[in-house]
Amino acid sequence: MDRRRKGVYGPKLGKNAVIFVDDLNMPKKEKYGAQPPIELLRQWMDYGGWYELGGDKEFRKTVSVTFCAAMQPPAGQKTITNRYVRHYNVIYVEPYSDDSLKTIFGCVMDWMYGS
Question: What is the rounded CA–CA span in Å between residue 69 and residue 78?
Answer without folding.
Answer: 15
